[in-house]
Design brief:
Strand content: 25-35%
Distance between the termini: 90 Å
Helix content: under 10%
Structural class: mainly beta
Largest sheet: 10 strands, parallel
Length: 505
């Protein structure tokens, strides 16, 4: 190695060491909006320092402590951790999603004198972690970079955003709890202390092309039993997916489950291009294992959608608007832990907006008890049940894929034999078709029974399949959906009751 290369390497190492050496902790010792020891002063100091800095809290007196901003904090550059759990009197959450709501105790909250004040704002090169803070009464509590290409990263752990500091009542943010449309974001996680409450805002989370949302309560109080809606100020949603790739909402691990309930009008709005400008293909997208429309236990209703009679049926669990992309957005999956529980919503469980490019692939989800138009649990055009048409020649969202027509079915022991047909001509769908059978519960789907595939050569012919009925199935009636090779899925077929198919009651 030449002396010049060695000197350059040494200089680079020295520069790194100097940056690490300059990393500092800035401690907030007052609730004042400015001056020595204030949060504003700490952010200013961290921006001026090199290295990975920390803002800690040691405000004297009994908690809680409220910091009221008269104007936005300085935009954050560099690497910074804002750690509210350093304040005396705070405690991290210890409960998992299966244990119920959160038992975190927060000791520091940030609010504002005017609703147009943002909280923490990232510059395009920032790497920010915010944990153990309550934030309310702001515009966007945490705002990612809003410019074009960036390298900003955001982690949000253990916060109550949009609620009071105890997570019990609305605190109301005019924008999003976390708006990260152009910032790579990690919101919550599988560790109990990482779980957030994100409620009482125009939207809980707005993600772009890179981000994960895991373990959070979105649209509820900290107990997971009462609604504190996101969306009511702007008809948005609990979560807005504004991107097309590398998005993870929930996960197969129960610890990753989000509770997405109580929001108005939508639990999840899949609106690619919303605030992101993304034209990326749909890839590496996971919406797995979430509870949407229930309380934390999954056994009691806590619906998404507007409660008024005049707005009944508008809103619901998940709405899809893809905007210029022919690929279906996947929701759920067939492997263990991938299905979402989508029940009790005031509109349909899944809605594809009435746009020619709005396509959704429903994969194994449990969807029932939803109050869409005519009580439709899956609505592929936003207009209630879509009747089958000859040869399936109509177009629109999901190409308005015809649902399977059940010809006959019989049960012998635990063996369910079904003869069915899908009236979809080869020219009107991409083959093979995937046929999913679920036991029926209130006109929607319960547990999966089995799956079949129709090859192009067998288009529009009757098929007979036999499945072993799972021990946990809720009953003998069943429903079916058809999904083509592009992921364009149908609504549920009418429930077919095997016991009464012969006409005897």
């Amino acid at each position: 190695m030449s002396p010049i290369v060695i000197l350059r390497a040494f200089a680079a190492l020295s520069a790194c060491a100097a940056a690490v050496a300059q990393a500092a902790t800035f401690t907030v010792t007052t609730t004042a909006d400015s001056g020595s020891g204030s949060l504003r002063d700490a952010v200013t100091g961290a921006n001026a320092a090199a290295g990975a800095d920390t803002i800690a809290f040691a405000i004297p007196g009994n908690a809680p402590h409220t910091i009221t901003l008269a104007s936005a904090l300085p935009a954050i550059g560099g690497t910074l951790v804002v750690d509210g759990y350093t304040q005396a009197g705070s405690a991290m959450n210890t409960r998992t999603p299966d244990d119920g709501g959160l038992d975190a105790v927060l000791a520091v909250e940030i609010t504002a004198t005017g609703a147009s004040v943002n909280g923490f704002v990232l510059q395009r090169d920032a790497v920010l972690t915010v944990q153990g803070i309550a934030m309310r009464g702001l515009q966007n509590a945490i705002l990612g970079n809003t410019g074009n290409a960036d390298a900003s990263h955001l982690s949000v752990y253990g916060n109550f955003i949009g609620t009071t500091i105890d997570g019990a009542a609305a605190g109301t943010n005019g924008g999003c709890a976390v708006r990260a449309s152009r910032t790579k974001a990690i919101i919550g996680g599988v560790l109990p202390w990482q779980r957030n409450v994100l409620s009482g805002s125009a939207c809980g989370v707005l993600l772009g092309d890179e981000g994960s949302v895991q373990g959070n309560l979105i649209g509820t109080d900290a107990s997971g039993t009462l609604a504190i809606p996101n969306g009511q100020q702007g008809n948005w949603a609990g979560i807005i997916i504004g991107g097309r790739r590398n998005v993870r909402i929930g996960g197969t691990d129960p610890a990753a489950r989000n509770l997405i309930s109580g929001n108005q009008p939508w639990g999840i709005a899949i609106w690619p291009n919303f605030g992101t400008g993304s034209q990326a293909p749909i890839e590496n997208v996971e919406v797995f294992g979430n509870y949407i429309g229930t309380d934390w236990s999954g056994t009691q209703p806590l619906p998404n959608g507007f409660p008024s009679v005049a707005s009944a049926g508008f809103g619901g669990g998940i709405q899809v608007q893809l905007g210029g992309n022919a690929v279906a957005f996947p929701i759920g999956g067939f492997a263990a832990g991938e299905a979402n529980l989508i029940v009790w919503n005031r509109g349909a469980g899944i809605v594809a907006a009435n746009q020619t490019s709005a396509h959704v692939d429903n994969r194994g989800n449990v969807i029932h008890y939803n109050r869409g138009l005519n009580h439709v649990n899956i609505d592929v055009a936003g207009d209630g049940r879509t009747a089958n048409d000859a040869n399936d020649a109509d177009t629109g969202p999901n190409n308005r894929q015809n649902f399977p027509e059940i010809v006959t079915a019989s049960l012998a022991g635990d063996q369910l034999t079904i003869t069915y047909r899908v009236d979809t001509a080869a020219a009107n769908a991409a083959y093979p078709l995937r046929i999913d059978f679920h036991d029926s519960f209130r006109g929607g789907s319960g547990d999966p029974i089995g799956q079949d595939s129709i090859a192009l050569a067998d288009a529009q012919t009757e098929r007979t399949v036999t499945f072993t009925v799972p021990p946990g199935a809720r009953g003998i009636p069943f429903v079916a959906t058809a999904t083509d090779a592009n992921g364009y899925g149908s609504e549920f077929s009418p429930a077919y009751d095997v016991l009464f198919a012969d006409g005897f009651d």
